[in-house]
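Protein in question kept in full:
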Amino acid sequence: MSPLPDVSLGSDEPLYNIGVVARMTGVSMATLRAWERRYDFPDAERTAGGHRLYSERDVLRLRWVKDRIDEGMQTSQSILALRHQEKVGNLSLIEQSPAVQTEKTGEYALHLQSYETQLYKLLLDSNLNAADTLLAESLAVNSPEDLILNVIGPVLAAVGDAWEEGKISVATEHLATNYLRQKLMMWMLGGPPPRSVNPIVLACAPNEWHEGSLLVLGALLRRRRWPVAYLGQALPLDQLAEFVRDLRPPLIVFVAMTGQTVADLENWETYLPEAAQSGKPVVGFGGRIFIKHPEWINRIPGNYLGDTYMDGLGNIEKLLSKGL
């Protein structure tokens, strides 16, 4: 039998509508409604309009029940077993990572693409109130992970490309970027309760001011319950050593986007000799320059995290599993 999730770690705040929970748990909306009628499980909150809202804790409990059903137990027995385990306090304290859908196909892909297109246009029109309304609507039917990966991230990149190509003004680029930055910071500072480990340090290379990809990575890591220490733009390496000694992070992630800024990372070992000699903390790196000019990958000491956000998340968790 697979281990029980730690339902005590889940927040009781109602966050997710039924469609999002169905995708997060693999339990259909029809089944969720049927379980509530027959077994009073889960006991979802209701909005003023009567729509169900589920908490992180509800999601964990649903996943546990589905695991038991997949192992051959009847639904009613699985729910009774969960309630009994909760009553006697006999739960293994292991929580599943939040589900992130990495490939979007068909109608759902078009659905997300529509939100991306609308958000991009609203930000270029400086219509922030309408953008707020659109994101609230999207969160009602999508998980934060899907929104970050498939809407916020692509729009952030598109805004940057439009500015570089001279299609939008600096003012418009700053307004749109700062709006998206605030949303990503919100998810990075909030989210599910973090794991009991030291934070991962996230930093842009010296003189690197493009922090969009680092913000996206930080928000996704927090959704997976990894604590982060976000140092942001243009971090001088000579200011990092003492901070790292005090914080003792398991991992440092550097991001560089251009040839000019990535060159500053070639000698990071000079400023972090303990990490260079012992391998602790582990150092990882990524960014657009490594995709455009992969020859840089072998020039930077440490671990290349990959070409995509999902590659980065996967490689970060592999590195952490070895070092923790």
